[in-house]
What we know:
The chain is mainly alpha-helical. It has helices spanning 6-17, 23-76. The radius of gyration is 32 Å and the shape is rod-shaped. It comes from Gigaspora margarita.
Amino acid sequence: MRKKGAGSARIDSLTKFSSPSSSKSKAEINDLSKKLLTKYLEQEKEFQQSQKALSISKAKILSLETKIREVEYKLEEPFFLLKPKKKFG
């Protein structure tokens, strides 16, 4: 005779827990389902907010990278291409 695995024991307990003869069990399942859904929706909202923050950060990083490239280019320009400074007098 084979032993039941942990997974099948859980399935059996859920089947017994949700039997039609127990309205209290159904109410508990419904309550837990609502709590689970609420928690899921909260997590999803938090995830979306994080995604927005990451998008903003990405845009800032790209902008700063562009500015860095511009400064690097100016530093690499040959001296004669630089604009002459105004002379006094």
